[in-house]
Amino acid sequence: MIQFILRRLSLVIPTFIGITLLTFTLIRLIPGDPIEVMAGERGVSAARHAELSAQLGFDQPLYLQYFRYVSGVLQGDLGNSLVTKEPVMREFLTLFPATIELALCAAIFAILVGLPAGIIAAVKRGTLFDHSVMTFSLTGYSMPIFWWALLLMLIFSVNLGWTPVSGRIDVVYWIDDVTGFMLIDAFLSGEEGAFGSAVAHLILPSIVLGTIPMAVIARMTRSSMLEVLSEDYIRTARAKGIAPWRVIIIHALRNALIPVITVIGLQVGILLSGAILTETVFAWPGIGKWLIESISRRDYPVVQGGILIVATIIIVVNLLVDITYGIVNPRIRHSR
Amino acid sequence: MTTQTLSAPTPRTPLQEFWYYFSSNKGAVAGLGFIVVIGFMAIFADVIAPHSPSDQARDALLLPPAWMEGGNWAYLLGTDDVGRDILSRLIHGARLSLAVGMVAVTASLAMGILLGLVAGYFKGMIDTIIMRIVDIMLAMPSLLLAIAIVAVLGPSIVNAALAISIVSLPHYVRLTRAATMAEMSRDYVTSSRVIGAGPLRLMFICILPNCLAPLIVQATLGFSSAILDMAALGFLGLGAQPPTPEWGSMLADALQFVQRAWWVVTFPGLMILLTVLAFNLMGDGLRDALDPKLKQ
């Protein structure tokens, strides 16, 4: 097992180096002089230019710049935002809980709906329910989620008035930032109605962000379940007279879940990139909105740092998924 | 006595056989039908569209669709905030979306095939380097990578297409490499090599035609993700710039109309959804029809 983990880890290091190379190169690919681009239309004086150039290390040879960058990154130093002058890392850490909260709720929604839908579709193969699940999941899979967000907002916020349009909590509440997770903070604050307001604000964004993962999970669960249900041991279990639901839940589901776990893990990338769109529509103050705003403000250190952190999170999660996969499925662990 | 001539049933040509399997999938045929319609719209956009996509009718701002109260049959799906006909913009948008899909898929297919063939054929060091880069690209979600590329190159439709073709590259490289490696050990490749075929002939004339099936399927699915990513970039203001009639960028400022003009919000997104869905349906059908393992 340890050998398996080490082997996976050895694959992660070159990938991480590659991503630092990518984000490092990216900022140097900006057409024109990076400092003038960063300064924008105001322009900079020659003296200020030289000063900035030295400060950002642009006057050194490329390989030195890269080493400086990587050693900074490894110490958690991603530079400072050009706009707020705050360290990129600190800005990220204050905004990240909002994105995690949203992504977690979206994942819970996707699993709670996708998994049962996939299981029932497989068990009732060929029925109307199966066909509807497959149609819905293919539609969900093809969904432009930014439009889905607008559509749901149109129906549930504007026409029905059931949910708020945007933000994390109603403006009448002032919630102290304890954990950064609005649900927990609102709950802890003890203010009447604050928790309910936080929940109401989360519903639509979670559904929107969870739609594609839900579709993927439902499809994967169905096909994996179908495969397992046709195996001999299931027939044996049925022949022994075990209750049908027990065969499905206890015998089949356990094995069918193995590929589904992997697919759920792989949704982290989809959730984080989908968060960019979802947060933009719902004015959700997380890292997705932060990244897009920093692009339009040409705040390159933030763009560079933000992309690096997100990519790193995804690599780490994929590694964890791989290891979990190795734990639940010994065959993977021992193959090459 | 009558003589009866018995003839062996003529074997189906590959094309007939393909159609036989493909047409048994209703969803795939529906997808194909929709794509043909959209393609027709795209090609003849200038003739079909009732108005120019950039004409601003000052007397008809935010007009609802024709069947609604206050609608005008001259503007079937209504008008936007500066009085442009939404239907005409959607029709012209089809041209743009399909063109971007085409360019992005062709570019990444060409580059992917080349890199995949080289990696699979030569193996060793080249293979390792190419595959490592591919792994790095796969570690990033495609939309994030596309955003990063556009953030640097500057927002425009050309840069967005370039970004999309770069981010979809890894899939083609992996597929081609895997197929090439499988074909390399076949007898026909060995015999061509013995006859004296050079690496170029072996790669492009012997091996490549036999690797095409999975690539065709992936290219179809690639179309759908290209259109989806393009629309997302347009929505974020990183793709086509206004006043270009691109489906995603038509939605970019729709947020302010959610309250009073649902048609501005609804129709462009519906077009994106239906087109992406059509390509996905067709891709699924193609996979079933082209995969010999599923034919039995």
From TrEMBL, chain A:
PROSITE patterns reported in the protein's UniProt record: ABC_TM1
Q: What is the membrane topology listed in the Swiss-Prot or TrEMBL record?
A: Multi-pass membrane protein
* Keyword field: Cell membrane, Membrane, Transmembrane, Transmembrane helix, Transport
Q: Which species is this record about?
A: Maribrevibacterium harenarium
**Which compartment or compartments is the protein found in?**
Cell membrane
The entry sums up its family as follows: Belongs to the binding-protein-dependent transport system permease family. OppBC subfamily.
Alphabetically, the GO molecular function entries are: dipeptide transmembrane transporter activity
Task: Tell me yes or no: is ATP-binding among this UniProt entry's keywords.
Answer: no
Write the protein's name.
ABC transporter permease subunit
From TrEMBL, chain B:
Spell out the GO cellular component terms annotated for this protein, sorted alphabetically and separated by semicolons. plasma membrane
- Report the subcellular localization: Cell inner membrane; Cell membrane
Under InterPro entries, the record lists: BP-dependent_transpt_permease (IPR050366), MetI-like (IPR000515), MetI-like_sf (IPR035906), OppC_N (IPR025966)
State the superkingdom: Bacteria
Q: Does the keyword Transport apply?
A: yes
**Main subcellular location of this protein, as a coarse class:** membrane
Kindly state which keywords UniProt assigns to this record, in alphabetical order. Cell inner membrane, Cell membrane, Membrane, Peptide transport, Protein transport, Transmembrane, Transmembrane helix, Transport
Q: Which residues form the ABC transmembrane type-1 domain?
A: 94-283
Q: Which GO terms describe its molecular function?
A: dipeptide transmembrane transporter activity
- Segments passing through the bilayer: 28-48, 98-122, 129-151, 157-173, 194-217, 223-240, 261-282
Membrane topology term: Multi-pass membrane protein
One biological process term in Gene Ontology: protein transport
| PANTHER family on file | D,D-DIPEPTIDE TRANSPORT SYSTEM PERMEASE PROTEIN DDPC-RELATED (PTHR43386:SF1), OLIGOPEPTIDE TRANSPORT SYSTEM PERMEASE PROTEIN APPC (PTHR43386)
NCBIfam families attached to this UniProt entry = PRK10913.1
Similarity section: Belongs to the binding-protein-dependent transport system permease family. OppBC subfamily.
Q: What is this protein called?
A: Dipeptide ABC transporter permease DppC
Species of origin: Maribrevibacterium harenarium
Organism lineage: Bacteria, Pseudomonadati, Pseudomonadota, Gammaproteobacteria, Oceanospirillales
